[in-house]
Every structure is written in C-alpha cells, then in structure tokens.
Amino acid sequence: MDELIKSVSEKAGINPEQAKAAVNSVVEFVKNKVPAVGEHLQGLLSGGGDGGNPLAGAADALKKKFGF
C-alpha cells in the first residue's frame, strides 16, 4: 500500500498523509459498492493476492457482479 500512496502523492502533488486518506477513501468506496472486489483490493494492498495474478479474484468478482 505504501507504493500506491507514494504514487498518488507524487502524481497528485499532495503530501503522503493526504494520499493515504485518498487511497483509503477509494478502498472503502469500492468495498461498499462491490464488496467482493473490495475484499480482493484490500488483500492486494495489504500484501496479499493470489500468486501470479493478484487481480484475478477481483476480476472474477466483477464478472459475477455484472453477469459476464
């Protein structure tokens, strides 16, 4: 998550504390709107994932949510 916060901070021109608040806000938004994706996103940002493709679970959750 630190890497994402650093990237947001640099690209948005804001300090790391503001970037962390922004990232946390987005994660909470996704968790509330699409819980299955939010869980995978939270796991990815906290160092989890599913090995070779950490976004596979999130993609699967989106497919199920939208009927793909």
How many β strands by DSSP?
A: 0
Helix content: over 70%
| Percentage of β-strand residues | under 5%
Judged by helices, strands and strand pairing, the structural class is: mainly alpha
Cα radius of gyration in angstroms: 13 Å
**Integer tally of domains:** 1
Q: Note the quaternary state here.
A: single chain
Main pleated-sheet profile: none
What is the terminal separation in angstroms?
Answer: 29 Å
Mean pLDDT: 80
Helix-strand topology string = HHHH
Uncertain residue segments: none
The shape, in one word, is elongated
The number of helical segments is: 4
Describe the structure.
The structure is a single chain. With 68 residues, the protein is mostly helical. It is built from 4 helices and no strands. It has helices at 2-12, 16-33, 35-45, 56-66.
Key structural traits:
single chain, 68 residues
In a few lines, what is going on in this structure?
The chain has 68 residues and is mostly helical.
